[in-house]
Amino acid sequence: MGISEPPPSTPAAPPSTSARALAFNTLSAVLEQKRPLEEVLEFNSDRDRLAPRDRAFARLLVATTLRRLGQIDRIIDGCLDKPLPRRAASVRQLLRLGISQLLFLGTPPHAAVDTTVELIAARGAEAGFKGLINAILRRVDRERAAWLEQTADPSLNAPAWLWDSWVACYGADRAREIAAAHLREPLLDLTPKGDAAAWRDRLGATLLPTGSLRLPLDGLIESLPGFAEGAWWVQDAAAALPARLLGDIAGQRVIDLCAAPGGKTAQLAAAGADVIAVDRSAPRLERLHGNLTRLGLHATTVVADATLWRPDRPADAVLLDAPCSATGTIRRHPDVPWLKRPEDVAKLVALQGRLLQAALAMVRPGGVIVFCTCSLQPEEGPAPIAALLRDSALVERLPIQPSEIGELDTLIDANGDLRTLPCHLSELGGIDGFFAARLRRR
Q: 89-104 and 130-142 helices cross at what angle (nearest 10)?
């Protein structure tokens, strides 16, 4: 629900070398220090000194490079007679950015090559690689068609462990569709607080079957009609579905676990529920509270570990958006494949199981639990639900009906659970990968 500045298409005017320097520092922080892309950009003081157009270009350049990282590295390795020395990490990062501009952003070749060479020339001991960078980039420009053909395999742009898991779960053809969807910049999705059709017309947006509004954005979110008056908030169309599975919750007591950044909290509050938003991060809850204030909505916030906290009395419903690997959000967060590891998934699955048990303890008999994750990994969706249903006689599954999600029956799996994939709704621009199951306490 946070405010962001999605990148437009490549600006018509050439961006500054400073924008490329920001892109270089950001890419290095993501891939070498394993820091999330948005965190790096948010806390980079150099970003604030750039014009909005240059900031947008820097993010677009880094995001495109991360989306195409496997392809780009295959090209770099194909141009080298021997591997780059370990001390030349900056050389590879700059080559990645230069190739991304040449092949995927449509940057004029002279600008892509010259500015990349300028950046390496300013790096002291690494300036000796200036000739190598110049030669490789010019070769890639001359042979662009051949390189694109040689690196067309979509599996290149995902770590092997992720790709193998998608093939095992969804099949090779669907895995390719997922990987292809990750290469496209997503559009902006909004959840309206009131009349969706009226805001569709005012914003010039598309009203999706699920109820979300979708539109391209070339500029600041804050400048859009309705932002100042709190008429809507930013939320991917898939992320907006789980809260709707609770049905009519007006006047009901609903606990939102792991609530920040707050998109689902806003949905629950807008639907008339008495909401308790629980999250272990005080700063993230402060941001949630600020967003609710803009929207004119209210929720009680609690800073606590949701596995240990309990309400003073049982709730009518619990919404649990569990911590996960976030592999379903790669369209919007292309750094995810390069930051996560298989062992991360195993740790998160254990936490999800504990959170499900906690949610069960918080809801009254006859109450509803919606469990969801923004992950493509089956271990982080179907598996925890299957384990709970197998081991506890206290819960039963409430299958999701197509009428609850815009009659999109292809988004419901054989068990009656929600399963969206990035390649779903491709004709409308795609959707994040989400899993959700609805349970009732007996």
A: 20
